[in-house]
Amino acid sequence: MFSFEILIFLFSSLTICSLIYLRIPQSLLQALAAILLAAVIIVSRIVFLKSKQLHGQLYRYLLLFISALFVQLLVITTGGFLSPFVILLYLFTLGISFLFNLQSSISFLVFSALTLTANIFLNSQMQAIFRDDPWSTILYFISFAIVIPLAQFLTRSYHIKDALSKVLKEYIQISEEREGSILKSLSEFVVVTDKSLNIISTNEAVEKALSLSASEIIHRPFLEILSLKDSAGNPTTADSLSVGDILNDRSARIIKGFYFQTKTDPRPRQIIIHAKPVTDLDGQVSQIVFIISETSFFDDTKRHDNLDPARKRYQMIFKTLGQSLLDAKLRRPAAEAGLLAKIGEDLLLAQEIEDHPIRENIDFPDVVMIGQQAVANKQQFAQAMGVTLKFFLPPEEVSEAAWLNLKSSGLPEKTLPMSDFAVPVDGKWLGMALPRLLDLAILLSGGGSNPVVELTARQENKTTVSVIITTSSPPLSRERQKWLFETNYGNLGKTAFLYLGSGLEGFIAKSILTQLNIPLKIQSEGLSPHLSFVMTFSKLRA
């Protein structure tokens, strides 16, 4: 496919050939090379300082042209094929393959070789040198040809590793955010102590159960704060919790057979204690983390069984990416890496939703902005699935268009008027539900003829706003529609591209919207029926 970079390299090579054809003196060409080097330095500083995307892109292309012109001119003015700087052509080729693509880098190399060849024909001194030793020219062309497979191998390996590193970084970041969110709302007790079992920190569940503040708990003995007893009613001790063994062998323990009760709830509840040591840089235990759960809640063999297919899908893609690092044969590493990150995030989010209810933080976010952001974030996934993803704001929503312009101008939040699409909802959780619905719509539409997914926001009346996600998927019966919001989609798993997703997209979206009290329904409209997801928001606080 033709790219703008190829045009830049062609123009650079034609400029060099014109200078050679016009027989510009060597001293002037060397002075021009020095000027170009100064221009490269100046423009590169502008590129890194530019904030506007359009101007920044123009300066990047200008920098690319000046850099290519400088490298080619430096080689030509110092001997062409015989120049000690000819290696710069190879290095520049490899750099272009990393920053742009292999096709652009090969075009630069080919144009440069043609320019050097033209220099031989247009320069009588160079003709004499190569007439005496024609085989050296052939060897130089061979050296140019060797760079092409080298660039191909390095580029493919680099992009695969870069894609995988981004996935892992994103996955770690998502995990940390989820862990922080889970710790705040977790129904289990999480207590961190030092080696002497003095409490260092706890989660909110402990504070609520004991009706104590953090300041009243911190630095107090663990066994004094929590009333734990064994089956015979005896108070728990450090020995019965195997604290000595944990400190000695630095291994985790799962401790059963204990009961917990509070002043507000004297009923004994059977618990399981998961004690995990935390070591310092010297390998010595410095802290112990106690996770206390009711027995019925901690049964790992019965929790999240519905997520197993998504886990297997995640492991399969991760294995594919790992193998690609060795053989560099993966055709679409970016698409596979993006899918891996999506499934990993869906798994963590589904576990969080199943483990504890959503804690809403009601605000008045603009649903149009949330929708625009969701569409922008899902463009790469849509392209990988071969689906056109669009956002549409009806032309009659003039007030909202003006508000968005004010918002993008950088005015302080306090000076902005209230948006017509501001609704009382938790913007964070709505920002998680909308992308999952888009995922579902993209997967449903994928594989069809000219598949399109469109997100539209409109005002139904003065108090109601609708967000509609329209797909190019044919309608489904009411019974089959319900499967869209089940894990793994029931009997719809092989429909369109649903099998490529995590199997959790609809489940997550429906679960979040239900807890946010946002109605979600499926409908078919138009002469050519298509499937649409409709969310209705009230502007009035319930």
Would you give an account of this structure?
54% of the residues lie in helices and 15% in strands. The protein has 542 residues and is an alpha+beta fold. It folds into three domains: 4-132, no CATH class; 188-296, Beta-Lactamase; 361-538, Histidine kinase-like ATPase, C-terminal domain (Heat Shock Protein 90), CATH 3.30.565.10. A six-stranded antiparallel sheet has the order 2-1-6-5-4-3, with helices on one face. A five-stranded mixed sheet has the order 7-8-9-11-10. A hairpin with an 8-residue loop joins strand 4 and strand 5. Helix 6 crosses helix 7 and helix 7 runs antiparallel to helix 12 (308-327). The longest helix is centred in the first third of the chain and has 52 residues, at 134-185. It is extended and about 105 Å long. The two termini are 55 Å apart.
- How many structural domains does the protein architecture include? 3
CATH class of the largest domain: Alpha Beta
Question: Cα distance, first to last residue?
Answer: 55 Å
Can you identify the CATH superfamily of the largest domain?
A: Histidine kinase-like ATPase, C-terminal domain
